[in-house]
Amino acid sequence: MKPYVVLVLYQTPWEKVPSRAILLKWLAENELSGLMVYDNSLQPQDHPDFTKEGINYSHHPENLGLSVAYQSAFEQMPAETDWLLLLDQDTLLTEAYLMQASQMMQTAMNQQIAVIVPKIVASHQQISPIYANEYIRAGFQAVDSGLTNDRLMAINSASLWQRDFLKLIGGFSKEFPLDFLDHWLFYEVYQKQWQIAVLNTTLTHDLSVFDYEKVSVRRYKSILAAEKRYYTCYETRWLNKHRQQLFKRTLKQFLTVKNRQIWKLTLKAFWHFNQKEVGQ
């Protein structure tokens, strides 16, 4: 089984991508059916690698997010390819990951396994996959390796999606162009009662959205909007929990985050939910 890979770039040189070398190696060894480099940066990149067979580079300065990039790869992946690998520019793939993923792809073709995910670590903590049977907040419970029907959530990067499942859900949702796309995907896995395979291998990833000192105001607005859409349209049972969490987040940000716009945006989001409740 040879997956098709889509790697999304944003304001990062191709040379600096941690997985560049191993992706080129796998392509040369015919372990991949192809690689799409979808560049959302302001300026295009010109690199000799992009002329190599099997690599499709495209530049999209309008930066419409991840969903459009993933959908483009889903629609363009070779007909004989059954698996799509989503990859961020900050994730470092390993040989152990490919070996285990290849074995699981073979197994999964005879079962309703929607997605294969590794364990992802950031700042020495497993951030993916985690259990999502409760409202997700700090102190979440990490998931061990194996096959499961449990309600989980994992980040997009390094997740391998079976083509048949993506067809079933109509591809990648335009409702979540960037943030909470991963939440929506795994919500759909649980709703459709397909399985998730968690590999016994660990990858590292830089998840800057966890750091409110690093996240831009524009990105944080995107996060808040995606949270609102997700908890009002999908996981509605956690709407009250989310409102409470927004209030707690506001207080914490007021005390710890230097950029004062961040806590003000969170307070505004919390106030919006309260006003909506009063209106009801």
From TrEMBL:
InterPro entries (alphabetical): Nucleotide-diphossugar_trans (IPR029044)
The protein's name: Glycosyltransferase 2-like domain-containing protein
Organism: Enterococcus columbae DSM 7374 = ATCC 51263
Lineage: Bacteria, Bacillati, Bacillota, Bacilli, Lactobacillales
